[in-house]
Amino acid sequence: MYDLKLPLKIPKPIRPRLPSYGIDEGENGLLSWEFVSKIMSSSRNYWIGTVGVNNKPHVRPIWGIWFENYIFFSGGEIQWKKNVKNNPLVTIHSESGDNVIIIEGVARLANSEISILINQEYHKKYKMEHGSEFWALVPEKVFAWTLENFANSPTLWKF
Fold this sequence. Notes:
Number of strands: 8
CATH superfamily: Electron Transport, Fmn-binding Protein, Chain A
């Protein structure tokens, strides 16, 4: 079990280095963390990327809960969960390709107190309970951008 620091402290946003994309290098147009929270909390589906024991990528849609600046997720004994237990490096992507959020980090099993809270939120969102075991993605990097303002919106948070 991992004791999460709630809420997650958010670093200052910076511009990611994207040579040859024509991205503004200044701070004009950087997205806010509120943008990230809005997209992640309003999404119904997310994409999880894990690494299998054969070192091959494994990407699947999942359901999740955005809570205190973390994405929490759960599942039965399925392949992505087996992968996370073997290699906790994970990427989770919002469902939108127009308002993009990509979170890279380390998946940690949440303690039972937090899992109970998350299960309550899960029930509110999906109209069903999922159980008591939830994982949290502890971010190392979060990328965000909008398709509408791609030249100015790419934003990076490094934790």
